[in-house]
Amino acid sequence: MVNKKAEFFLSDNNIVDNNAHNQATSNHPINYWQLNSRQSQESQPKYAKLNIGGSLFYTTIGTLTKHDTMLKAMFSGRMKVLTDTEGWVLIDRCGKHFNSVLNFLRDEHVALPDKTHEIAELLAEAKFYLISPLVESCQQALRSRQCKIEPQCRIPLTSSNADLCQLITMSTKPTVKLLINRHNNKYSYTSASDDNLLKNVELFDKLSLRFGSRFLFIKDVTGSSEICCWSYFGLATKVAEVCCTSIVYATDKKHTKVDFPEARIYEECLNLMLYENRTEPDQELMQATSWRGAVSGVSSAYGSDDEDERTRIVLRKRLV
Predict the structure, then answer these.
(1) Confidence at residue 290, expressed as pLDDT on a 0 to 100 scale
(2) Alpha helices in the chain (DSSP H)
(3) What pTM, to 2 d.p., does this model score?
């Protein structure tokens, strides 16, 4: 009789254990602590297995319940959780930033991502898990980034020929350079020179904003003998030059004159577009865009017949 009674109690314990096992391996919401309600406080689980959108994480219950968040409610018995047949707690969220969530719960701070859209993604996860300090950190980082204005165009300022040559050689885009040096003058300026000098600078700024993604714009202050001069480079080779200064003779003395050849500047910019997306020099193209002596700095005065012929060559190259 004693043996049969002992056997009966053993069978009864097995029934309880099997019921608990069946409840743990079902895919229905259960209380995470319910399986351990008949166990002592010392035997309660100290670790948790989480499946966050297919990414697996293994951490301590202490980390998950350290702060007053939704995770604490899930793993302290206040909320029911969903588990799979292997005991992994299922949370239907993306696991990309859950490492950052766990690190914040552990250390109360975490390094935020570098990219703005990733900070926004982490913010969404922090809001879902109700982690208020992490939400504030992400929102503050996003606000600070919105205050920063990215420049539309960056213009390097060179003061040496070595820096200038390096920039032009390393650039994969055609280059427009404006040399500006108002104080490099031996004579007095004519009445309209200062105004024309400013017009050249303003046009350079406008062109850099408009074509900054297609050309490299450089402002040169090397202090050469020139005062205002535009230079155009294709495939690291100078293909055109527009000098805006000249010496004029008055009755009593010489004067320096600064011109604003707006049409010529625009024309050379259009010609420079022919050098985009090219990897090797084209002698016919270079001859068509620079044959009239612009490279050598010869005066730009030429006849209408030459102008028409040059225009036909350039247009023919553009169509090709």
Answers:
(1) 59
(2) 2-24, 61-64, 70-75, 98-107, 116-128, 132-147, 161-170, 193-211, 262-272, 283-290, 304-319
(3) 0.48
